[in-house]
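Q: Hi! First time doing this. I have a protein sequence and I read that you can turn it into a structure. Is that right? Here it is:
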Amino acid sequence: MAPSTTVPSASDIEVPETLLKKRKQNDKLREEKIVAASAARKAQKAKRKLIFKRAESFVKEYRAKEREEVRLKRVARSAGDYYVPAQPKVYFVIRIRGINEIAPKPRKILQLLRLLQINNGVFVKVTKPVQQMLHLVEPYITYGEPNLKSVRELIYKRGYGKVNRQRIPLDNNAVIEAALGKHDILSVEDLVHEIFTAGPNFKQASNFLWPFKLSNPTGGWRTRKFKHYVEGGDQGNREENINKLVRQMN
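A: Yes, that's right. Below is the predicted 3D structure, encoded as structure tokens:
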């Protein structure tokens, strides 16, 4: 017969109640995390599909608009007339002059436009009050109508968002969704579309974008920088030629 021992076996030792409760709680939390992660993956997958479908619809919209413009030009040419394009909806405004010798009123307008430094750029919606403001600060800025390529390149390459008054890079659609999701803007392509088409939530989208910090143009400014663009300078409205300047500064 084996000698008896006073050392208890593993089966004889009772587990403390607190340890059992902790184990059950940890198991429950682990299961909840697994379920939540699975649901998040499904939601993310559905969101990606939605974003992709939206991007496809935007491309179709842009192409249809281009084809319609080409068709109207051909119709006008065949009838012996001239095609006059629609008035621009959006301007891209760039500050080209510093703070020296600025009167209080233009200084305030530049602050309202968020153009606080040289080579800062912003998108603005074309309205009568905005046009009057741009006319008053014309010696300090240059502006024009950006095309789709310019809008997309600016946002993808130089785009930063304003989140809690901080400058956050747009490296993830989640940043945009968190700030503009309530306005149905979920991705960078949604943001590009809202800016380019001057949509109903243009103000929120434009205010979300931090003013673009551009470089000096490749090859430098013109010799007479502070004359109007039509006089051989750089300031004022340069219409579609703003896109060439954006390429040089981006």
